[in-house]
Amino acid sequence: MVRADRFQRDEGVDTKPMNIVVPIKLVPDLVEELEINEDGTDIDREFLTYRINEFDDHALEEALQLKEKHGGSVTVLALESEETDKVLYTALAKGADRAVKVTGLPEGLSSHALARTMGQALSNIDYDLVLVGVQAADDRDGQLGVLLGKTLGIPHLSVVTDIAVEGNTLTLHKEYAGGIMAQFETEPKVVLGIQAARVIPRYAPVSRVRQLMKEAELDEVEASDIDLGSGTSVRRMYTPTRGEGAEMLEGDAEEIASRIADIINEKRS
Amino acid sequence: MPEATPTREIFLHFSTWMEVVFYVVSAVATGIFLYGSYRRIQKYRRGRKENRFDNLGGRIWRALITIATNSTVRKGDRFGGLAHTIILWGFVVLFIGTVLVALDHDVLRFFSLKLLQGTFYLWFSLILDIFGVLFILGLIMMIVRRAFFKLPELNYDRPDAQDGKVDRSGFVTDDMLFVWLLLLIAISGYFIEGFRIAETMPEFERWSPVGWALASMSGSILDVEGVVTAHVWSWWLHALLVMFFIAYIPFSKMMHIFTDAANLVFHDPDTGRRLPSLPLSSEPLEEGKKASQVMGYTHITDFTWKELLDFDACTKCGRCHVSCPATAAGTTLSPRDLILDLRTFANEALGTPEWLKQKFQTGSRWPVQNKTDGNGHIDVADKVIRPETLWSCTTCMACMETCPVGIEHLTSIVQMRRHLVDGGNFDENLQNALMSLGDYGNSFGESPKKRSRWTKGLKFKLKDARKEEVDLLWFVGDFASYDPRIQALSRIVAQILHDANVDFGILHDGERNAGNDVRRVGEEGLFEMLAEDNIKALKKAKFKRIVTTDPHTLNTLRNEYPDLGAEYEVLHYTNLITELIQQGKLPVKTPQKRKVTFHDPCYLARYNGETEAPREIMKAIGLELLEMPRCGTNTFCCGAGGGRIWMDTSNEQKRTSEQRIEEALDVPGVEVFVTVCPKDYAMYTDAVRALGKEDKIVVKDLIELVAEATSDSI
Amino acid sequence: MSQDILVVVEHLDNVISDVTFELLGKGRELATATGGKLLAAVLTSSAQSLAEKLGVADQVIGVEDPQLQHFNPESYLTALSSVVEKKAPRLVLIANTSMGMDLGASLSVERNLPLVAYAADVEMEGDAAIVTSHLYGGKIYSESVLDADSGIVSILAGSFPAEPGKKDGTPELEILAAPPALSDTRLRFKSLIQPEAGDVDITQEDILVAVGRGIQSEDNLPLAEELAKALGGAVCSSRPIVDNKWLEKNRQVGKSGLKVKPRVYIALGISGAPEHIEGMKDAELIVAINTDETAPIFEHAHYGVTEDLFDIVPALTEKLK
Predict the structure, then answer these.
(1) How many domains does chain A have?
(2) Nearest CA in chain B to A203
(3) What is the pTM of this model?
(4) ipTM
(5) Is C259 on the interface with A (CB under 8 A)?
């Protein structure tokens, strides 16, 4: 077995620049309290704030890192919604080359339908790699990356934490429980579900984003004849009841600290 | 011999060739001076354009007053200030005297006119002699000050020296050359006078007391021939020293005579409290296209001509160096060295020759040794000044407050920070804060909907100023809304205003961080976004005045929002409480007989000149205020401003907040450390805890004491 | 279409993962409800040794091939697909793990079967399977109806006890012929990499202080370290802390990290996403401090505090010294 050292990257090998696509999913912001809609089958989407799925942010960062190291291009894709423009311009401000907005679909799409949509949009894009966040908080019917790989008929690998490129060969780390990793090799094209980028995702200065909003154009493609079904239906969504949850400790900091100390000391004794 | 008309012969005992040589040397010296000055002006012309010519008359008048009174130089340094003032006036009077001589000899002579004769000449002689003495006295004071006082201001060690030692002997040489040259010129001038008088000892020359005394002395040593020879020699010595001085001005510290006068004319007292928006690109424009904004300063040519002038205006007086909290904390930032590094680099990059190159490259890896392409195309914010250095600034504005010559450090720092922000060259903590601010309008990463959740503990409902008209709009701010410790203070403020029957309301979830510190971090776009959101909410609301507890918020609302189209009367809560006390709406029932000290917030005292309101309140509620050495506009800093509160501050060896608490502990009898700024409250509470001085001193916001004073005693 | 329940056996280097037994235990229940058999699919190089541990199942379906010694999304899918095609089970239960994610979703497309992920529970109600998923970081639960003849459920590890699924003894073993397409993969498995041995083995610690996003910055970690020191324990964390590189991987608790079972677990600023809960819910005493009173961690903790951790932790450290 090999030690878990990061790959020795050989700068000498002539690496082909790769065109990378990052499909971005907007997810409800979990900082806000989520509420259930009237018929109780979905969250109430009326006043929701959406933001980029945090894993997708890592996927984008990894894509930008690869581009900056080896050349090529980064294209971001997202379904149209109220916040999509901001998310796409932010990606451009970070260094993505092209942003595509996919129009004509409702919010709250299932992963299966999203994979079909992204697959259709990709049919007109020249790409080598698809990097996507390994999961999202609302993947009720499976993770986008895997579904997209199958839809496109190319291999997929989830929970990827390291990508190295040499020539036309990608060396990948897939993470298992307990930090054990499996090393795979492949050639493009492939879909990778990114767990974490090699560095934390970069910051997009708001001035840049605003300037791009004035100057740059987003490409638009319209999705057509997408089968929206996922084969399952939600019959009920609910906020878990605080049943036998924790006993809540109240008071000022000192009192609470004393209670906790007592509880722990009792347990330890 | 009849009593001669009091006057003097200029080229006494000079042969024609000597006169010719003199004029040739003068012409050469003047030529060098003009060339040097021209090179300087060319350098400034390569800076970005900026209009600082508005109200030019007023600017010149203000500068003249400042220079004539030397008020900024004397402030904070009485000895050095006095020395500088008498040197300046001595220099000015002697200069006028020399001009009069030249006028007589080189102009009026040809019209058979003469000024310097008779009574006028006698007064002329006396006044010049007196100011000459003052001039020499001032110079000797300066030499003594430098030689014996061991002032920290004049310690040229760099805080960011890599191995502790930096060779700055060039600085010292430059300083010394300046004072000694002037001293020699002055003394040699007296000797000319003395030898001239000694030849014939005319009675009227008693009006030149110093010359007369020297003449009497030399007359007893030398015969007439010797006196004449000595006169010629001293004349030449004096003349050559003067010529060297003139030629050397543009290449030395002496240039400060001109650069500082200009800098005082073009200084805007509002810079700092009102930062400029993003500069426009200076690239040639395509037809019909508007100039795009650039994200702060990357290259030396991005600085404005005024900023390039700033760098040359610095006399290394070191006042900013000793007042800067970042320097005191042991970070790599010293405002003095920042300006001097930029000066050195500007000279190098923009091709101005310096005869005495300041040699501080040795011993430090900064500034970079790399040659530039001649256009200054090297990343200034990354390579000339260290990013860490730029991030150390708390934007407390102590440097600008104390700078006698109107250098605007802060704008340069923020413009370079903008470039760092654009390149993502900042720490992760700050990144998280900025992302939270972008997503939620607060740095806590909390839902904007929870912004007014702190009001839940109140017994009454706070009005929503967007829905009903109020007298006073309370702009609560981030810390007061989200930090649990400050939330408690906010509730006290609300209760007091409620009890005093003030008609007030808040914007609830319509409020965002006001953006003062976001702007000073250099995230201009985010500032604009936050300000636009706030202005939208403000426009929706109906109110007469705005009040806030946060001086940072106050500053941007009062000084920066007007440029964005939102002009309101903005009060600090101490102004409001003073008003309420005066109107009898807050009767003091339980005077607080306690000994307290007070920390003036940078953004209240320095930025907005308010030092009285908090003191009036303290007096009204019976507190005995014992001032710390640094108070009023000369206040120290808690270390949290300019976005420092969001950053990794581990480069501070000794936190400024802790230094400040120690300063307070040194004031005998102080029990309470009073603050009037949410960030101060948070910083100093932590500092007291970190120092383990909880039993010695307690941090309280003034509002807590007001609440205790206005409630019935128990 | 049969009424059988098929559990996909997850193994790493031919060692069966714990989650498999959790799935088998649940599968047994479901098979009773549907009246079908409990099948265990073993995809490996040699099925016999694994089958010996699968006594709970009625039948073990094995696909053997050297290619299957290690997990590979493509060859495993090919193998599993052939099992599903042959057996046509009512439900396929897969772990929602690193391997299971690749396998479950691709099987769904390959065989055109519906899939429900993030499942924490599955029940049969008449003919319909009802799957409860924990969505939005555990803040929302959803009940999905799998009313098709057949479907896939991707189940979060730690959702069910493992004990009922553990029974030695080899059930009937049916080896299916390896499909020829098995070795036709574009992804090539190269090696397994063990994590670097860290300074601390959090799985062996009695007392753990866990930090999550609520700790806000790397600078605040000493706060947790001091508490851990006062308690004689160690610091561990949720995933975001490790993703931010504030702590080493060997400190991560949860799905892609380690599973811990200390006597005392103090969660600081951890919201309690299912992935994290999975790794720590067996701790004997859980105390959670989080200002968000709706945080799912309070569902699993024994004691909860909604005050600011920055006030509580220093006070607590002081008390415990």
Answers:
(1) 1
(2) B424
(3) 0.88
(4) 0.87
(5) yes
